[in-house]
Write a structure and sequence with these properties.
homodimer, alpha+beta, Arc Repressor Mutant, subunit A, 2 domains, nine-stranded mixed beta sheet, two-stranded antiparallel ribbon, 21% helix, elongated, DNA-binding
Chain lengths: 201, 201
Amino acid sequence: MRELTPRQEEVLDFVLEKLERSGYPPSVREICEALGMSSTRGAQRHLEALERKGFISRAPGARAIQVRGGLREAAAYLPLVGEVPAGPLRYASEEVEEWLPVPARWGGRGRFLLRVRGDSMIGDGIKDGDLVVVDPSPEAEDGEVVVALVDGEATVKRLRRRGRAVELVASNPAYPVLRVERGEAEVRLAGKVVALLRERV
Amino acid sequence: MRELTPRQEEVLDFVLEKLERSGYPPSVREICEALGMSSTRGAQRHLEALERKGFISRAPGARAIQVRGGLREAAAYLPLVGEVPAGPLRYASEEVEEWLPVPARWGGRGRFLLRVRGDSMIGDGIKDGDLVVVDPSPEAEDGEVVVALVDGEATVKRLRRRGRAVELVASNPAYPVLRVERGEAEVRLAGKVVALLRERV
DNA sequence: CCCGTGCGTAAACGGATGTTTACATGTAAA
DNA sequence: TTTACATGTAAACATCCGTTTACGCACGGG
């Protein structure tokens, strides 16, 4: 992406600021006023330059400015589910407590946030009350931290494959290892834990 | 905030969807088209209702719709600083690696993100590579987790006040306690740790 | 010197867009 | 029943706003 002239950068900054403050982009004339111009042509040219250089996209219509790489693109929003997805790895919208922003690279198809209860994974730095980002992958590999549904209840554990059996291992030695032979169905994997948020340190 | 009628909710949903998809709000006529109306008055009335009930704000001008409690308001953006703030608790913009979105309630004046190095706080579930949210409070109380500058280097430790002295305690027993008597100046507090992000679990 | 580019003013055009008035229907509460 | 409200159509109006044309100035490279 090419460099911007100082004036073009002023325009881009103003667009971003307006976007941040108002929630919608400025009109061409608002840009003029902000930069002390009396003609719309000046701002127009700057917008054309910004588009040519790839910093923004424009669509026909009023205020139809899209900022590429803007703040909006930096965030993904994940639902914090009250209960763990049951059935076919889906969460009903009624169970969504709230949507929280996370860094965009944490986002992904079907990912969601789950509040961890208990201290069984304290050895991996996962504490009671932490929010974990869960990727509903169909397959989890040996050694990964997963969300498992045991008797309908969700627990976070480390997965260990032992031949045909699967073990769910807590990182707190006070907790027992749950061993499941292949074919037994009381345990289901809801996904694997890929990231973590902690609100109170 | 009063409840919305089903139709009003449809309008609000469409506005949010358009905002998410395009980066700018829809025009009244776009709302009409989306909801299958042939007159702008219908959408107009819904927007008036949404404003009356406090879900949106409107300003004169095209597409000047602000959604209260929209996605944008849910996020705050904090800078990830490469090095710890030196001097008067400020970070130079050159040191900012990137800006990351976090839940809005994590934001606040002067807060920033810092990457934790080492495993000295493993006992508190703070691992190597974690990003901590630092609030540059002037005062930290006994028992709080703080970022301290020791010989110009940043470390995360738990603060313990012992009369006139201050102790910086690691939660990994392998590390020694750093004791500082009042008046000694080689230790300075950069702020306290209020939240945490972990990118790899 | 000439030419391309960035930057700006002035003025006008036309479509996009918000707003208003008037009329109408269905539903629920008083 | 009466009243209020949500909802909708139809039409017109005034302005917002993107775009275009024309002209001018400054600067740097060839």
